[in-house]
Design goal:
Order of helices and strands: HHHHHHHHHHHHHHHHHHH
Structural class: mainly alpha
CATH class: Mainly Alpha
Radius of gyration: 21 Å
Number of domains: 1
Number of strands: 0
Shape: globular
Number of helices: 19
CATH topology: Growth Hormone, Chain: A
Low-confidence stretches: none
CATH superfamily: MFS general substrate transporter like domains
């Protein structure tokens, strides 16, 4: 008779889902509020592009420091600090009085959010058995998509009721409460959590990746000298480039192009994000299903390649649509595909980074969000230079092709070699 393994670790799954839900609600508020903010602060679309890019730049630059801090000092303390910082500057966004103050608030807000996913990845290394990594990452990232999806129409409605500034104050307060709950309930490893039974603790320890007790420092030179790391960074640019468009410019793009009202635009704009949540679930299941067939490398590569193929197909197809619904459905296919790449990407970082997962995943996420930084500027500038939105979408499709090539040469079974 087999012994049923307790599932207290699933509390960590739920907690990470809720954190990413809040993370993206806070992040996407500014897209729904774009028209209200530009009217109130007298900003142009180019200036708004820089505001959106300020977040992405802060987010990109502080990925590696945020992940490294979690590796060194423990996720519990670092993640709590991160949540407090990003929540304070969510509220400060609502207090902005001009272009410069808005740029500053969004840059620091991005820097605050930067360490969130690398620290979740580092916690997952300790808490999640190898055969459950795909499912965990699928659940984790679906929270971000669902948060963004439902925030778009909700915030659009609340702007009419409360005004745009109050939205940011409210979600800032929710974030502080979340930080308190996280510090109270979370522990860095199952060995430290009194609520985890001995049976489950032993099961997790036995089935997670080997953790060395005496680890050496993993230098940036060593990370950047590893082919696997360079390739995972490049492919993540392709994923983030199109997804960040959905978070930032999709809402004002379809509102203006198809002359929609605020709330209707919100419902259209949530469709690709719901597709993204579904893509995360499908990918997470697929990663674990293939891994359990003793095909570790294929479990990462196959969903990612399929995902990027759908990105290219969806983006190019959207250019031939004459209606808002047609364009949004095609872009939903693209985001479904882009989000199919997340579970294998983050699982890959844990595979090759092991106990340095925070730093390695931070490098990948930094590269991806430099792509996001480019997105927020490329969309308005390319439109201004060419008089058309099409060049932006062709660039996004090209990056998807490059990402497929990267995955062909990536190998999850080869961890980074750390010198003594």
């Amino acid at each position: 008779m087999s012994t049923r393994i307790p599932t207290k670790r699933y509390g960590f799954f739920v907690g990470s889902f809720l954190i990413t839900l809040l993370l993206y609600i806070d992040r996407v508020c500014i897209s729904s509020a774009k028209d209200a903010i530009t009217d109130d602060l007298a900003l142009t679309d180019i200036q708004m592009g820089w505001v959106l890019s300020a977040f992405a730049l802060g987010y990109a630059l502080f990925q590696v420091p945020g992940g490294a801090l979690g590796d060194k000092y423990g996720v519990r303390k670092v993640m709590t600090s991160i949540m407090v910082l990003w929540s304070v500057f969510t509220a400060m966004t609502g207090a902005a009085w001009n272009y410069v103050s808005m740029l500053t608030a969004r840059f620091i807000f991005g820097a605050g959010e930067a360490g969130a996913f690398p620290n979740i990845a580092r916690a997952a290394f300790s808490w999640v058995p190898l055969q459950e990594r795909g499912t965990f990452q699928g659940i984790n990232f679906s929270g971000s998509r669902l948060g963004a999806a439902f925030a778009l129409p909700l915030v659009a409605y609340l702007i009419d009721v409360w005004g745009w500034r109050t939205i940011f104050y409210f979600f800032g307060a929710v974030g502080i409460l979340g930080a308190v709950l996280f510090y109270t309930l979370f522990r860095n490893a199952p060995e430290e959590h009194k609520g985890v039974s001995a049976i489950e603790r032993d099961y997790i320890i036995k089935n997670r990746q080997e953790k060395k007790e005496n680890t050496h420092t993993l230098s940036l030179q060593r990370i950047l000298g590893t082919k696997n790391v360079i390739l995972v960074m490049i492919q993540y640019v392709g994923s983030n480039f199109i997804f960040f468009f959905m978070l930032t410019w999709l809402f004002p793009y379809i509102k203006a192009k198809y002359e929609l009202n605020l709330v209707t635009t919100g419902f259209y704009a949530m469709m690709p994000l719901l597709a993204g949540a579904l893509g995360n679930w499908v990918s997470g299941y697929t990663v674990d299903y293939i891994y359990k067939k003793d095909k570790w490398e294929a479990s990462r590569r196959t969903p990612a390649v399929i995902g990027f193929a759908l990105v290219v197909i969806g983006i190019i197809s959207s250019l031939y649509m004459d209606t808002a619904l047609g364009a949004v459905l095609c872009l939903s296919v693209a985001i479904f595909g882009a989000d199919m790449t997340l579970s294998p990407s983050w699982s890959f970082c844990m595979d090759i980074g092991k106990e340095h997962s925070g730093k390695v995943s931070g490098m990948m996420n930094m590269a991806g969000n430099l792509g996001a930084f480019t997105t927020a500027l490329a969309f308005p500038y390319l439109q201004s230079w060419t008089g058309s939105n099409d060049p932006f979408f062709f660039v996004a499709a090209f990056l998807g092709v490059v990402a497929i090539v990267c995955w062909v040469f990536m190998d999850a079974t080869k961890p980074i070699q750390i010198e003594d």
